[in-house]
Design a protein that fits this description.
- The complex is a heterodimer of chains A (112) and B (112).
- In chain A, the strands form 2 sheets. In chain A, strands 2, 4, 5, 6, 9, 10 and 11 form a 7-stranded mixed sheet that branches. A 4-stranded antiparallel sheet of chain A has the order 1-3-8-7, with no helix packed on it.
- Chain A has no helices and 11 strands.
- In chain A, a hairpin with a 6-residue loop joins strand 5 and strand 6.
- Chain A is an all-beta fold.
- With 112 residues, chain B is mainly beta.
- Helices cover 0% and strands 50% of the residues of chain B.
- Chain B has no helices and 12 strands.
- In chain B, strands 2, 5, 6, 10, 11 and 12 form a 6-stranded mixed sheet that branches. Chain B has a 4-stranded antiparallel sheet with strand order 3-9-8-7, with no helix packed on it.
- In chain B, strand 5 and strand 6 form a beta hairpin.
- The radius of gyration of chain B is 13 Å and the shape is globular.
- Classes of the chains: A mainly beta (112), B mainly beta (112).
């Protein structure tokens, strides 16, 4: 009963380094999402993929890229990390319609 | 666009007190409404949902009723426990598989 799995759980980067956050779901869901969570800001959508082969920008896409590798996997890449990208990142997936999104446990990313 | 406004926290209550966390929304059409809960160090978990007007979602003693006339989805619990201490997020989804839109979250602390 893995659900949504994110790796790594923690990471510290230096400014300018690059990194890819991995997300995989085993529920055969069509849609996948990346959010960031910052104190007092709730969750803000970075990118999403409504179905395999498609990706769309969310509310805060600048500085990020995504790849929907296959139906299971949706990765988030920081090409040149900045301190403003210090956050907790959550991946989520959804089957369809009014079903709830399922969330991973998050990746805590610090950029120095 | 769609938006969710929920009461600012933190909220501190004594065990067995009554809880209300207000949530109002702005959306076109007939969105689905959700409450998620986040325990310390974890991802978000669905607490309850309602998909049409006058529906009542309920789970673990929590309830919320979809009120279209007041565009509200307030979360209530009659008697809170220390284990209910968490951050609560109200969210909505518009039509189709559009991403969830979250409120900023309300931190609840319950003291014995």
């Amino acid at each position: 009963n893995a659900g949504v799995t994110q790796t790594p759980k923690f990471q510290v980067l230096k400014t300018g380094q690059s990194m890819t956050l991995q997300c995989a779901q085993d529920m055969n869901h069509n849609s996948m999402y990346w959010y960031r969570q910052d104190p007092g800001m709730g969750l803000r959508l970075i990118y999403y993929s409504a179905s395999e082969g498609t990706t769309d920008k969310g509310e805060v896409p600048n500085g990020y890229n995504v790849s929907r590798l296959n139906k299971r996997e949706f990765s988030l890449r920081l090409e040149s990390a900045a301190p403003s990208q210090t956050s907790v990142y959550f991946c989520a997936s959804l089957e369809q319609g009014d079903q709830p999104q399922h969330f991973g446990d998050g990746t805590r990313l610090s950029i120095l | 666009g769609n938006s969710v406004t929920q009461m600012e926290g933190p909220v501190t209550l004594s065990e067995e007190a009554f809880l209300t966390i207000n949530c109002t929304y702005t959306a076109t059409g007939y969105p689905s409404l959700f409450w998620y809960v986040q325990y310390p160090g974890e991802g978000l978990q669905l607490l309850l949902k309602a998909t049409k007007a006058d529906d009542k979602g309920s789970n673990k003693g929590f309830e919320a009723t979809y009120r279209k006339e007041t565009t509200s989805f307030h979360l209530e619990k009659g008697s809170v426990q220390v284990s209910d201490s968490a951050v609560y997020f109200c969210a909505l989804r518009g039509s189709g598989n559009t991403p969830l839109v979250f409120g900023k979250g309300t931190r609840l602390s319950v003291i014995a």
